[in-house]
Every structure is written in structure tokens, then in C-alpha cells.
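Sorry to interrupt, but I need a hand with the structure work. Can you supply me with one protein entry, sequence and fold together? No commentary is needed, just the two lines. Leave the record below and I will have a look.
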Amino acid sequence: MPSKSTHASLLGYAALVQDFALSCPPPRVVSKVSSSVRLVNRTLFENGCEEIVYPKSAYRPRTGLSGQLEYALKSEPLDLTVLAALFEKQPAREQLQAWLNAAPSSRYARTAGHLYEWLTGQTLHYKLPAGAPRVPILDEADYVTGPAISNPRFGVIHNLIGTRAMSPLVRRTPALKAFLASDLKTRITRTIAAIEPGLLERAVDYLYLAETKSSFAIEREIPSPDRSRRFGLLLERAGAPGPLNEEAMVGWQNEIIGVPLLMEHTYRNKQNWMSNSGSQYSVAYIPPAVANVDAMMQGISEITQAGVSGAVDPVIAAACASFGLVFVHPFLDGNGRLHRFLVHHILRQCGVTPAGVVLPLSVVLLKRQREYASVLQAYSGPRTRLLDYRLDPDTNTLEVKGPQPAWLYAYFDATRLCELVAECIDYALNEDLPAELLWLQSFDAAMGRINQWLEGEQSVLSLLVRLIAQNDGQLSKNKRGQFARYTDDEIARAEEIVRDAFSHSKSAEPADIGGPDGAAS
């Protein structure tokens, strides 16, 4: 958390939060001026927040709303949540109007005026001076932008991602710049084209199974064979043309749940919440009010469409839309699996992943579950702590007693979320898929050699090879009874062959879910 310097004055968004007593999540960047430092001091915290302290002798910002808001828009990442909370205050509106009157050509006053009207739906008194240059809300060098829409009234180019009901911010970090420049679609196409078709078909069978089991495992669920089959079939249909609307979402959710009593026919019509693990008395997250669900889900649909049309990079659109869905939590159950399915659906609908191929993203998320949970908590925690609510575990109901504004949920910095999805894609493409192909090649080599001298049904020999490979080249004692027909010398020879065949491969497949035919070990 930012430090509490004794001789420091807040700047930008942090100053606006303090001066106007705003009840909103803290800004990601906290800027200060201090007499106790001589050089600019930057501190980056583990939660992604940053504190910047300027020497007082070298920096004298203007005070009041105009000075702090100009500094924020000029020097800090855009924070629509702080602005939405600020613009609810009548004194802020009055001071913003005075700023526009005094400096009608100022790009920052005009940007603030445009954002005020966009966020509140209310109109300011303003006329653009002749000759004022058009200015974008977001600089494309610093941010991933959405479709450019001109607002001639303020001379502003609105290029935010999404809608007023759902607008994530994505900063162009070095990691994201490198990923976006890597041309994912071409990389996937070349990787797939280089794989022998028969081998690819077997690998894809495994990848579908791995994605299915891992998506359930993240939720600490062991699905029945029927639920696994249905989810796998749903993954195969990901990317089908059609709008991302309530009908489609309800259909997918019901296929994921598969339990008639838990199936839903619309988005939720009551307030839901998430409990901390193992406790029905502790609230981890309270999603948006029912009244805001439809508009936020429409915003997610708009983000998806921007990815399909090419206005937003498909991976950015997939990450923003899928995490947006889990933040909205439009259903009472199945939101997490639907959120992860949506990444596959959007990537395939955008033509990034080809039909019939799935990247095992949930396998990677399962491996990085602590980090996955932390990015979700970075959104949920600050918002839930602001709410006044009453939980009644006896009746399984929760009532939000105080304000629950739509803007509290609508705007968030999605940069780390996009980086995480990009990292998972890279790992799945560069590590998991090659590892599975190598495993299959090693398996084929072992089977070919064992078939030359050891008699038995192919299913029995296949199981023998898998069990040896998955136990670091040895058949475990508790599995020995399954192969009583073979002598100890024959088993020892089989173990030697498997060790040799798998010497350059992982002994167990990723996710440890079984062999290439999907059989459990």
C-alpha cells in the first residue's frame, strides 16, 4: 500500500478522492509532492499499485479540481471509476463548468467535459472554439484502444474499449506490446501446419480432455463423465457464428451445469455473492445489482464484436470480455467455467484459433491458480469492502443496504488480466502442445518396440506403457497385479524400453489426466 509521508501533498486522482471525499476503489497510481525528497521517487507494490513522490522544490502543481484533474489526465493512467464518483458531486460539476468557461481550448478541460457527459448522461454548457485541434481520449502509444468515435462538440475522439456500462482499460506494457507484435494467428497456423495430421488429431483429443478437466478442477469439482462429455462438446462448438446475447449465454450455461434443477432461463434476478472458501459467513465478492446486469452484459457483447470486427485485438477482446463476465456473474452458478469457455469462443470466432483445435488455457490457469485468484481478488476485494450489506446465512440471502452504483463495477484496469491470458496462450502454444506431441511420439516409440516381442491386447500394452511412463519409468507395486501374465523380467525390459523412449519427454502428461486415449491412470 502507498506510504503515508508526513510532509506530502496528494496529486491527481488521489487528491480528488481526498478533496471530494469519494467512496471508490483507490487509484492504481498515487502521486504526491513532498519536501522530504530531492529526486522523483517511484515505488511499485506487489498488488500493482504505484506511488510517485515528486520533490516540492521542483514541482508546484495547480490546486483545485482543474489543476488536479489536468494532472491526472496528463500524467496518470485514466481512472474512470474515480471520475464517475467525482462527477456525482455537484461541486465538481460546478468547478468543471468553470474550468471549461475559463479555458475552452484546453485539451484536458475538453477531455474532462466529454467524459463527464459520457459518464453521467448530463449536458454541460460549452461551445468548441474555432480551430481547436481534435484530441483522443487515449494515446494509442500508451493504451490499447477501441473504435474511434468523434465527438465534434468537444473536439474529442472517443476511443475507449466497450460502452459506458462496461469499459476496461488496457495499458500497453512492454509484455503486451511484445505479445501483440508477435502475430498470434500466424504463429498458431504455422504450428498446426507443421504437425502430422494423425498426430495432431490425437493431441487435440487430449487437449480437449485436459481443458475440460482443468476448468472443473479450478472450481474444485470432479465432474461426472456425462458433464465432462457435454463440456467437451461445447468446447468443440466454440466460435459458432452468432451474437453474444442472453439466449446464447443461457444455452451455454445450462450445458455447463447440466442439472435440471440448477438450469436458468435468464440472467439472474436476485443478488448473488461469493463466499470465502469454507465459510458461509464470510463474503468474498458481491457482484453488480440485478438492475445493471443486462447493460453490462451488452457491454461485454460490444467488446466481443470489436474483437470480431478487428477494431480491438482478439486476445485483448477475449480477456476483457471473459473477465468482465465473471465480474458481472450473470448466473447463480457456472460463471467461472463460462468465463473460461468464452475465451475459446471469442478467439475462435475471431479466427485466431482454427476450428477443431483448443489451446489448454485452463491447464495453465490451474497451474497458476494462486495468481489467477489474485487478479480476480484485485477487482473484487476493493469493491466489496465499499459496500454496506447484510448477510443472513440461515436464509441464504444477502441484502446490499447502501449505494451500489453501476460505475463501481463498470470500469477496471484490465492490463494484468490481458497479460495473464497472453501468458497462458504463449505457454499452451510453446510448452503444453509441444510437450503433448513429444509425449505421443515417445509413447508410439515405446509401443512399437514393445509390440515386437511382448504379446498382449493393445489396450493392455497401452496401459502398461502409460503407467510406467507416468511413474518415472517404473511400474508401481500396487499396479503390478494388473499385469500378472508377465514375468518380472518382461516387466523390467518394458520399463527399460519406456525409460529410453521417454528420455527426452515428460514422464507424465500435462494435467496428469491420463494417456492419449483419455483413459484414467
About this structure: Residues 1-6, 510-521 have pLDDT under 50 and may be disordered. The longest helix spans residues 415-451. The radius of gyration is 27 Å. DSSP finds 19 helices and 13 strands in the chain.
